[in-house]
Known about the structure:
The complex is a heterodimer of chains A (about 300) and B (about 325). Chain A is built from 16 helices and no strands. With about 300 residues, chain A is mostly helical. Chain A folds into two domains: about 1-45, no CATH class; about 95-305, MetI-like (MetI-like fold). With about 325 residues, chain B is an all-alpha fold. Chain B folds into two domains: about 5-60, no CATH class; about 80-315, MetI-like (MetI-like fold), CATH 1.10.3720.10. Chain B is about 70% helix and about 5% strand. Chain B contains 14 helices and two strands. In chain B, strands 1-2 form a two-stranded antiparallel sheet. Chain B starts with a helix and ends with a helix. The model of chain B is unreliable at about 1-20 (pLDDT under 50). At the A-B interface, helix 1, helix 2, helix 3, helix 5 and helix 6 of A face helix 1, helix 2, helix 4, helix 5 and helix 6 of B.
Amino acid sequence: MSARRERKRRERLESIDAAIPVELYGLKRGTVSVLTACCALFALFILAPVAWVIINSTKTQANIFESFGFWFASPFEFFHTFANLFRDVDGDGTYSQWFLNTVLYSLVGGVGATVLAALGGYGFARFEFRGSKLFFGLIIAGLLVPITLVAVPLYLAYAKVHLINSIWGMILPSMVTPVGLYLMRTYVELSIPRELTDAARIDGASEVRIFFRIALPLMVPGLMTVLLLAVAGTWNNYILPLIIFSNNTLYPVTVGMGLWSQHAGNSGDANLYPLLVMGGLVTIVPMIALFALLQRYWRGGLLLGSVAN
Amino acid sequence: MSETALRPSAGAVSPSRAPLPRRRSAYARRRGRSGLAFVTPFMIIFTLFMVAPLGYAIYQSLYTTKLIGGTRFSGFANYATVLQSGDFWNGVIRVIIFGGIQIPVMLAIAFFFATIFDLGIAKWGPVFRAVYFIPFAVPIVVSSLMWGFLLDPAYGPFNRFMNVIGFHGFNWLSSNLMLPSIIIIAIWEWTGYNSVILYTALKSVPRDVVEAAILDDTPLWKIILRIKLPLVRPAIVMLVFINTIGAMQLFIEPSILNNYAPGVVTATWTPVIDIYNTSIADGEYQLGAAMAVVLAFVVIAISVASLAFRRRREFR
């Protein structure tokens, strides 16, 4: 390699701070186009079910079966089906009710999980106390426990303390997030300088004041990550509500739609298939919007989970 | 585990142990109490809704209820039943095959795209990254429903497609293809999330390492496989861990898809389906609890084995 070429490269590298320019990797011509095509193909695979749901939310049950899946067919039934989400069409329950339940469980559970993880993560990151290593080890072991395994014993315990068909039976377990606590502890260790909290302590600030005035504002990006993961976790939960709720007005969307899909084949006049499609669409739109809006917060937080081992 | 239980031992300084070298100062004790106060709310909920149910499951698994004679202690009888149950172990083997194929394939795809995004060697990287992450926002029940529609034997467009290209009578949800179909669905669900985590890990590889390699005329594939891949191995190990625990709990996808192809997914198809049917549908919750404990041990054994594997690799 000639010295001149080397010097040119070096200059090029030093002149740009952000990313290394693509030309410097010495790729063959056309590589970028081929890789872009690969990305587009995989994007097609990802978007296919979403596109299907959007297109078929406009169709009648007969057209869902008979017309080509990836194109529209008249009559346009979107608004009629959407209106049916607010009615109990076959006696299994009303989608709008389930949707509100899901929002309630996810928000209360998610906020609770975030508060507990923030306090606990800060406690484990900044204090040493008798049993702190043991407790933390126990929580890490909790990461290994399959959540579905807790559902059945919870049901048995709920039967004893009358928490079957109680919203708290759903919300309180949703507040247990070993992952959230682990993320918060890592976040505090990496992003809040010890000197800062120690200085405040020397100035005589109380621990509570230090937490709320100094630590908490610096923890916001980590908190957003934990909040999103906790909300998504509760939004997704299926087996726990399936087991503990027998009253269909308490179902979240996941259990309600699972029940519909069981009955869709033999629901007679109720025409549940368009409702299933529309329900799917209405369920995913708010979550996609939420993740898109808050992505600059959770991106940084996910990084922590990946590098802090 | 409560605060009061710990306070006496943490605070007491007994005279017999007077010359304690590591005797804690009043300041340290006060700080310790503050720390305990911060972690107590989490620990209470954690204990009530995770530790206690698990303890209760272990306790229940040692008892048997009979129609005549009521509930009585039966030692490890439930465990003997589980260990000898061919159906249960078939389910365990099925989820191990599922994870054994799905996780490596998905991680390879995720790493491929994460590398492309990290190096910026494809156009519109940020757009693709956002698109790939969409399935993470879709509840698994809903994604199973959507895929059920696409793969439905009667009207699913994907079956029609297979018929058009010459595979007559092709059925994605037949008993032979159910597991491969679920592998495809799981890849759809999780690739984006794994790819974002790998992407952020790759971004944290120091720039000057890569620059030095470029100046040495290292080919790109070597930079990726010999420099970047080893540096993000902790992230990969964590992802293998998380995905393994998830795979072993396979439940929602087969239960929902069964509504599109009745009878394909049996009552013991995966361990969690088996546990659900045994304890809730059949009401034999003590046997179900024993199954849950055995499954937890299988999960822990696999996780520990993967950790041991990681340690051994690091010596080389």
